[in-house]
Records
---
Amino acid sequence: MASPAQQLPPGWTAEWDATHQRYLFIETHTGHTQWEPPAAGPELSPQPSVSPPPSHHAKRRQYAAGQTQAYYGVGDSLAAVPQYSAAAPQPQPTQLFTPGLAADGQFQQQQQQPPPYYGGHAEPEYINAPQQPVYPVQPPSQMGVLADQFGQMTMGHKGLRLFTTNLLTSPPEPLELRQPPPEIFLPPNSCLSQSPYANADASYQRCTLNAIPTTNSLLNKSKIPLGLVLTPYRSLKEGEEEVPVVTDTVIARCRRCRTYINPYVQFIDGGNRWRCCMCSLSNEVPQLFDWDQVRNQPGDRWARAELNHGVVEFVAPTEYMVRPPQPAVYIFLIDVSHSAIQSGMVATATRTILENLDRIPDENGRTKVSIIAFDTSLYFFTLPSGGAESSMLVVSDIDDVFLPKPTDLLVNLQEARPALETLLGRLSDMFQDNHTVGSALGPALQAGFQMMAPIGGKIMVLTASLPSIGVGALKNREDPKVLGTPKESGLLQAASPFYKTFAIECSRAQVSVDMFLFSPGYQDVATLACLPHYTAGQTFFYPAFNASRTEDAIKFAHEFGKVLAMPIMLEAVMRVRASKNLRMSSFHGNFFVRSTDLLAMPAVPQDLSYAIEVQIEDTITAPFVVFQTAVLHTTCYGERRIRVVTTALPTTSNLSEVFASADQVAIATLLANKAVERSITHRLEDSRDALFNKMVEVLTAYKASMTAAGAGASAQLAISENLKMLPVLVLGLLKNVGIRQSAQIPPDLRAYAQALLTSLPSQILIPYVYPNFYSLHNMPPECGTVGEHGIIMPPPLPLTSERLERHGLYVIEDGQTIFLWIGRDAVPQLVMDVFNLPSYEVLRGGKTTLPVLDNPFSQRVTAIIQKTREMRRGVYYPHLYIVKEDGEPPLRLWALSCLIQDRADVLPSYQQFISQLKDKVNGSGY
Amino acid sequence: MGGAGWLFLFAVLMAAGLLFTMVFFIIMFSDLECDYINPIDLCNKLNQFVLPEHTAHAFLAVLFLLSGQWIAFLLNAPLLAFNVNKIRSGNHMYDATEIFRTLPTHKKESFIKLGFYLLSFFYYLYRMIVALIADSE
């Protein structure tokens, strides 16, 4: 049966006739129908109602064939790597047999398409140009027939069209993850301003659905979780728009629901009043709204930032303050026990602080700092202002912590600068011969807390040992026998209640805690990460840190330096308001929930993501809804401000629009948060099942309501084009260190991965779940050189080891680690060019820094690595590992575990995963 | 008035006390839902009452056991086991960081306990009266 997915002349549509089992062709303006396809006109209609065939089918077939190889023997175990490469050198296959496709004969048309090289030498990809993606919008897929039927539902008004795709025949396309979320089509005249910034950018706030279903039952039908993913405090890269600031302290808010005025309100009554977009209450426009206070003359309200921008900051007047804006306070708790000194952590940390003293936010000279060292005793340092000498006070009574001196401990950064510099220079030498083993972390935290409790601020903990004495002492509970069993989730819960109760005290006193953990052994990251979790801080983990390896030192110094230099928000509270009948039901991320919808964050670091689940309580009647996040905070420069992020989304009562508007990246982020929470409260097993079942539910719902198959069995596994990557993202989550089924993952690594999963913003989380994979040895010549938008990156490959060639050089990176994979047959010239070594044999695997060599290939490779480290927001500076194809097995397996589309151990390959999904979807009569 | 009479009189008073504790818990939970109280204060307040409530209930159950009131004891045994299990696994206290997530469970639990104490209150009253009548005959 030939698909009508060929170019119909303008004015023709094709419809499937169920009784005759063939297509009926209709000329729309005359109503004339015929069975024979009409002769194609000379030119294509601009918007053919039948979707054109996609252009990447060769890849599909090629992939499927590869999978067949992977199934039968070759890919069975990771040990069989040689065979992988044995299969690889064959030329790019163009015509391979795929049973499903060929048997049908349905895709003959498509097979005539020229087979493009995978991701090939097409256009270069500019990663840092999200606004104008070079990659074309995905053409409607092979199931255009169905798409057409459903497309017609939405034909009438401009909006999203649903394109169905078959997961069995369309492998994941890494480039799709870089596309912007489905467009938001607001009803006309809903927005006051024509500004393109009226809706907040997706990097600040995005919703899992860009068209909100009007009723809860419609939402339940789609099975897609409704939630917001937000990063209200996002760092700005060079060239990005600053958040506009409203400086005149005229803040118009709704009297009833306290919504801030935004581009989606309506002016009524000749502009004297405005109608709230959430609760429809009419409010007065403040007198000063039309007055320019700077120039003291009438102003233009339409030019006001809050009516033109989705993300805006208000300078808050005194009503928004409980106290005058406090200065930023930093207290460093530095572990000086034997292991910390030995690892070189203390020396690296003090040097980093010293080097970054100028970068610590201190615009008006109010920032205060203090340093407390601890092993089994506490060491305080007085830093007299003006003096250059510091003196040390030792407190060994750790049961009842007190501050040895009321003054000079917490000092002004500028005034005590000389003393601080000498202290930092000497600190590591002072404890050089310290042989004390053990850590009184709890008492040290209490001391730091006492010192800063009247002001609030940030405590940065740097520790290399398990807390062993005083309050908050922890036991080594790592037990290899428990790993991989249901009891494992116990290891991911807090072992001592101290870290929760203390976190609450901190949250009350506006104290935030950041943890930098360095232990060579078990450190109970799960428990220690509780403190940052509830006080809105961050956890950083450097397992087996050793500063004598320069890579370790550089990574830590880089990340710590960035954290020090980061402008933070202090004393923040965040609240998300939404239109009537929408309710924020549960919250995920680093904060303390202070009341039903108020999130307390003593200090907000940049680029932390929060996820909020939303419930639809009653039928929504409005044509669009508004989500508004407001963060009331004090900047580290001593100004009280409110950051308001507004997103307006249309509502819909049409299920196909709900599917067509789903944002797979936001869904994956929300699912990651939910999965981690579930793994802690229930079991890891449960959280994996929940993820899998969610995916099955979505696919079942889609099949039942959006495809002709309905409830019956179907040979296809249909999903809309915009959700095509969701299964592979879910698979990535299932294979992530934080969730994966395995008996070999140390609980510390798991806990840290979970902390990352719940705090990374989508931009960093997606590569963490679905890593990037580039081939370097045969990348297009322009890759690695500086293009219009910075360094041009090679096209990403699908994450499967079929792509690894024996003579190749590859990069696999997940935002936290970069692997440089080198095949065993790499030509000496390549090794020479990149590593400056004579041959593959002398090359050693492991953590490394690439030498900068004077040849173009080396420079391009270095540029790509550099770009990988810099292209995302966030402070992370990934390690670079060289992985040799026949090198140490652990490292090789680690790198291969990033190739999530492969089968690994008990974890299914992508193709197996998809067929599991299909069996489930077909099995459960819905 | 004989031993059984005194015992059930005491039980009636205890049940009334426990009943009021549960009412207090439920009121506090709804206060939290309406933002009249913050979770930290709520947990501090309620946690003071958790152990006394459990002890009072356990004491009553043990009294029934010692005095050979088998039916009354068996009635109380499931709740006793539930409480003991909770204390053993260390999650009997309310956790301010988790309270909003677990609030529905807590409320449900409090309502069930309220119902249980109400029923046992009337049961003890009935047994007290029966014992008194038996005495006076």
---
Amino acid sequence: MVRTSTMVLNGNLTVQMNQTILQNRKQRKNGHVNGEKRTNFPAAKGVSCRQYSPESFEQAPMYVAVLTYLGFGIVTLFGYFRDFLRAVGLEKCHLAQEREEQKEFVPMYQDFENFYTRNLYMRVRDNWNRPICSLPGPAFDLMERVSDDYNWTFRLTGKTIENVINMGSYNYLGFAENNEDFLKTVADKTLQYGVGVCSSRQEVGNLSSHEELERLVADFLGVESAMTFGMGFATNSMNIPALVSKGCLILSDELNHTSLILGARLSGATIRVFKHNNMHSLEKMLRDAVCSGQPRTHRPWRKILIMVEGIYSMEGSVARLPEIVALKKKYKAYLYLDEAHSIGAVGPTGRGVTELFRLNPADVDVMMGTFTKSFGAAGGYIAGNKELVNYLRSHSHSAVYATAMCPPVVEQIIRAMKCIMGVDGNTVGIQRIRQLAENTRYFRSRLKEMGFIIYGNDSSPVVPILLYMPGKVVAFSRAMLARKIGVVVVGFPATPITEARARFCLSAAHTRAMLDKVLHHLNEVGDDLCLKFSRRKISPRPVLFNETDFELDS
Amino acid sequence: MASGQQWVLVEMVQAFYEAPAYHLILEGILILWIIRLLFSKTYKLQETNKLTEKEKEELIEEWQPDPLVPLVSKDHPSLSYDIVTGPPSHKIIINGKECINFASFNFLGLLDNDRVKQKALTSLKTYGVGTCGPRGFYGTFDVHLELESRLAKFMKTEEAIIYSYGFATIASAIPAYSKRGDIVFVDEAACFSIQKGLQASRSVIKYFKHNDMEDLDRLLKEQQLEDHKNPRKAKVTRRFIVVEGLYMNTADICPLPELVKMKYKYKVRIFLEESLSFGVLGEHGRGVTEHFGVNIDDIDLISANMENAIASIGGFCCGRSFVIDHQRLSGQGYCFSASLPPMLAAAAIEALDIMEEDPDIFTVLREKCTSVYHALQGTSGLKLVGVPLSPSLHLQLERSSGSRDTDQRTLRRIVDYCLEREVALTIARYLEKEERYLPPPTIRVLVTVEQTDEEIQKAVSCIKEAALAVIS
């Protein structure tokens, strides 16, 4: 049941892809439905500059799913048992209680709402919110904390666990750094301006450095204009409502980030969700939408906005941008691309997925991204043509009501962006981008060799390793921390119930030695906990880009 | 009973055997007919409605969407921003002109404070700028924990939680508790972030007239009647009152003691947004609870941003652990956003230190507010909106021309007149189409402790002059 698909990375092929999509439709019309199977792009053969970027989502053996459900079943049953014990007073309830004066109020939380938190999350919550006390660079210091009451409360011991390798932070290009020479401009800005702004952009919070940053962002992305906002999450949630409203349709990928979903919900537009990165699903929805219009009234939609992410943060998959652009052009929809994780992190010069696919940025109507990840700062941007940005400048919720971005953060972004762009002839930025790409390639191929199931695109620095079973998730995270490696694990409800995973974020700042250490420990822990679920045969020497390895199979 | 039933059954079988063949055939046909009627469609909706592929292609060809965004005219009042060069502290350079700042929410003058800057700088040297992760995934720094416990201590509550953006604080907090089907009673003058939070919560929203406790009482009574009709539903419907301490849009204070009475009378929880009153009202700057001497535990949740008095970035919620802790898994802006840059958190801690060390700062601010308030009374053509204690006042046209645009332009001329004479003011900006109850156009006058008496004098006379020159 290996589902592999091949993507062609060549801007010149957009037209051909368009045809392929047309062909696919023709086939369907004749009754030859291909299902998940994707057509090879024949035109790619013999093109010298072609690159393949395989994206795989290997399915686990059946027994794994059964055991996972069983695991959840046992924990849930145990939870009910504990709840029963608490109800009859045999077990002490550690959760904070409502005040006496307000006991008669309608309960703040329903009992079942907190079942999961109380009985499952509490047992394992030492794996999240681990406090750190150093720079979030390639290695960091964790504050040791212990719990005397099975995770109901934590106590900081005052000791630190030093030099833990950081595989969790989104520090893709290593700009989370505290080198005084690099940060000189930021320090100067802090001394000159202080840290706040105390006004919104439309009132008196529009500093000249904001305008400088916006010109730089537009330059960097190769678009006409850009606008920046103080928080990445809010960039989505406060600007989508300015773009679409009632009578508009949003087609949203099922794995889109919460901020996109919130923005879509606040906009009042109709939202339909298509299957993750599934172009058939998207095209079907587009076709239906244009043909049958709005529900009940059957009026045509005012506009259709497709919302996708560049790199999906939990899957490591890359949006199939060439096909999406072809579809959007065919159906006259607009495209909103959230590059929170991809800007700076992919593409030969770090310009994100448009560059990865060699597309013209003008083909994407709304380019959104954040500065939190690759730039080691905070905030977000929206870029596109002049009309879009002018409209946002006058109608964005953020510009009117929220405090403007703080000057030291602005300076950090400017510094990082100039470094990536190689302004004043430095090559540090481009080296870091290459280093990240190399780290990604190395780490991913080694994991595959070891037999882990990993998700996502080969060029994505977000690497999820599937762990499946709830018990293993926790054991994995604790075992890795014991080996001084900080990992991020996520399970239900952030992922589907059977697909709990650990997520590694690679950084250009990781040295080969660090990665080797991580891989070595991963290998051992993987054997100890039986985490190597892959049944794929991969030759020991990675002949990774050999076409025959990626036979299509439906 | 049982034997009787058996007898009926036997009789039926017997009757079946005895019935004539034509009868059975007729009945059989009837049964088949009924089955057919049951399973067939009398009308053929699908077929008449189905489009052929060609028709679909034509529809796709024909459909013309609206442009992504409407064109903004070049002279749209909110398109061209004033450009500020240099720090927007006591003095501010707007469009190249150095002015005394009456336009920033820097009430305590902490933006330009050397101690705050130094603390931020020290933090920068250790932690760099960004946190590169949400709180859950190694984005929790010791500075964050310290700031949270300091805020809780300052406000005398059990717990505090920080957000990385002021606007997202209350906008995330409300939907963390109030869900679909719950009821929120909210003041009409509530600021935009509250409105967005309410919208995200998908709860039933009931607006009461601004600061009108009778109106709120009426709504609560109505709800009580409703609850009597359906007690089962009432038992699971959470109710909240959402108010602001010091209103952003009207510059007056909510009647908190009455609200607390209502709370216990009708068993409704109170959420209080204190972005303007935190660090302003009360003897120690603890906000509107301290101002009225209300027990802070009676308020279920207090939210404020650290972008005004504290002059940093971000926001926080505080209250009892029972309430606040829930946001650590349910506050969207908390869970899914990168955490606050440590240097900004460090700056906020230092600001809190200063506020704790020197509570006189609040007395000074109060005095300045009152003197500005009284001095601005009787400006010809302009009405002062707000209470004497508010550092954020509004100047509104006494007589509106009837057109919002004209009013805006008139006010803008006053602002420009003052800018010429080195007094920086700003027009309060709103999204006119998005606001639930759009406030009238006003000029903001913001008081800070840095403004000297002479400067206040100058500004007041300048505003009066401008009003005379522009309005008459």
